[in-house]
């Protein structure tokens, strides 16, 4: 089984790249499914499938060619299916506060519910071995970042909170109803949650195993897109999900010589260079800006060829962790893999929440998580081919937690 997440800002080309990867993987004989998690689905359109034909198949697997299926998840329906009881309880509770019923239903979609539906699918497909490859066309970055924190949060919830809540509810239910006229969740609510957890068991291990799961970040050579990619790079690294490639989509082809594009080309070159400073040693695969939209299998094949060349698209393109952050005794340590080990002077510069590391010709920009960015003392030492950077002090609010 191989699972690849395609993540990035809205409109950068996630769906196109996921579809291109799927076409290539399926052609090599892998049973491949591409699942779309973006509410603004466009998978079926890319494969030129008439939505009327999908009709009742909404949310189901649709075969698009030999070895290749697509599935556009219908979030509302998934929630009904997986969360029926929980959702019902929460909307009843919210409507007792005087909220309009429809609004209450809408609000009762807790953050995380959508993501959990997806986790259930991942788990099911891994267990049933129906597919060799699972490609996940993610929602725009912000939302997919929330997704990756879900397994950890759930684990915490079930171990720390769930059992206690269940016990409290059991004793407090009659009293609460009488005194406050607020329904406390019934046994079926807790049963539903427990059942859900059963079905989620193991999915966190699957996502954390870089032999199985990696993330590919899609980006464009533009300032704002790149900045967001840098942030995603940090978060995925923090959650220890392995990023094995960055795909730089929409690069102006070299043979476009029109003077109109001179400025574009210049700035694209700059941002490509910057991308190396942000993401190296993770490889960056460029793909050209097409003449028109990327539609249909033929243009997906061209896109796949530009990105992967003759390489197997399922390969794990980068095996290390680009960087690691750990914390012990109020001290944070950042470890960076260096492409070489030398004794040259290390120059560190912290500007805002970015750390700039310079050693000889090597330069890296690393976006720091907030609790680290506010610390003021920075020290570095080389250990083999790793650079260890320590951050201390200055952050008194953090000390109190
Ligand atoms: N390399 C490219 N050249 C030209 N158009 C592209 C390219 N990549 C994507 N597009 C087009 O850009 C639009 C958004 O792409 P899409 O893959 O849907 O992005 P996302 O899934 O990230 O929102 C689509 O119309 C797509 O055809
Ligand atoms: Mg999309």
Structural descriptors:
Immunoglobulin-like; alpha/beta; Rossmann fold; eight-stranded mixed β-sheet; 15 strands; binds adenosine-5'-diphosphate; single chain; 401 residues
Q: Can you summarize this structure?
A:
With 401 residues, the protein is of the alpha/beta class. The protein has helices spanning 14-27, 43-46, 51-54, 75-95, 101-107, 113-128, 141-180, 187-200, 203-208, 223-238, 262-279, 296-308, 370-373, 396-400, and strands at 2-7, 32-36, 61-65, 68-72, 133-137, 213-219, 243-251, 284-288, 323-328, 331-337, 346-351, 354-359, 362-367, 377-383, 386-392.
What is the fold named in CATH at topology level of the largest domain? Rossmann fold
CATH top-level class of the largest domain: Alpha Beta
**Shape descriptor:** globular
Distance between the termini: 41 Å
Give an overview in words.
By secondary structure, the chain is α/β, with parallel strands linked by helices. The protein folds into three domains: 2-74 and 115-145 and 204-308, Rossmann fold, CATH 3.40.50.300; 77-111 and 148-201, no CATH class; 323-400, Immunoglobulin-like (Sandwich), CATH 2.60.40.790. It has 14 helices and 15 strands. The strands form three sheets. An eight-stranded mixed β-sheet has the order 3-4-2-5-1-6-7-8, with helices on both faces. Strands 9-10-15-14 form a four-stranded antiparallel β-sheet, with no helix packed on it. A hairpin with a 2-residue loop joins strand 11 (346-351) and strand 12 (354-359). Helix 1 (14-27) crosses helix 12 (296-308) and helix 10 (223-238) packs parallel to helix 11 (262-279). The longest helix has 40 residues, at 141-180. The protein is globular and about 75 Å long. Magnesium ion (MG) binds next to helix 1. Adenosine-5'-diphosphate binds next to helix 1 and strand 7.
């Amino acid at each position: 089984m191989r699972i690849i997440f395609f993540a990035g800002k809205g409109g950068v080309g996630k769906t196109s790249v996921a579809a291109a990867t799927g076409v290539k993987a399926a052609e090599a004989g892998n049973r491949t499914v591409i699942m779309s998690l973006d509410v603004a689905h466009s998978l079926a359109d890319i494969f030129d499938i008439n939505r009327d034909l999908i009709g009742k198949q909404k949310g189901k697997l649709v075969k698009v060619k030999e070895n290749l299926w697509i599935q556009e998840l219908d979030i509302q329906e998934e929630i009904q299916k997986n969360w029926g009881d929980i959702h019902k309880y929460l909307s009843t509770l919210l409507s007792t506060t005087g909220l309009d019923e429809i609004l209450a239903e809408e609000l009762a979609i807790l953050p995380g519910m959508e993501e959990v539906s997806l986790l259930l699918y991942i788990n099911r497909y891994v267990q049933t071995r129906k597919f060799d490859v699972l490609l996940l066309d993610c929602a725009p970055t912000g939302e997919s970042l929330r997704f990756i924190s879900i397994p950890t949060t759930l684990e915490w919830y079930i171990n720390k909170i769930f059992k206690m809540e269940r016990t409290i509810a059991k004793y407090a239910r009659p009293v609460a109803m009488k005194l406050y006229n607020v329904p406390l969740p019934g046994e079926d609510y807790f049963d539903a949650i427990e059942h859900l957890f059963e079905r989620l068991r193991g999915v966190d291990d699957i996502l954390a195993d870089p032999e199985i799961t990696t993330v590919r970040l899609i980006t464009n050579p533009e300032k704002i897109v790149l900045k967001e990619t840098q942030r995603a790079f940090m978060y995925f690294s923090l959650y220890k999900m392995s990023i094995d490639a960055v795909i730089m989509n929409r690069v102006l082809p070299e043979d476009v010589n029109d003077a109109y594009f001179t400025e574009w080309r210049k700035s694209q070159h700059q941002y490509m260079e910057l991308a190396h400073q942000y993401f190296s040693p993770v490889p960056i695969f460029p793909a050209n800006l097409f003449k028109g939209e990327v539609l249909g299998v033929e243009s997906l094949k061209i896109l796949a060829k530009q990105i992967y060349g003759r390489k197997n698209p399922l390969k794990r393109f980068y095996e290390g962790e680009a960087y690691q952050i750990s914390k012990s005794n109020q001290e944070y340590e950042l470890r960076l893999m260096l492409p070489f080990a030398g004794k040259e002077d290390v120059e560190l510069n912290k500007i805002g929440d970015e750390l700039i590391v310079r050693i000889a010709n090597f330069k890296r920009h690393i976006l720091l998580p907030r609790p680290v960015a506010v610390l003021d003392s920075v020290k570095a030492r080389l250990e083999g081919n790793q650079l260890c950077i320590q951050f201390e002090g200055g952050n008194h609010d953090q000390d109190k937690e």
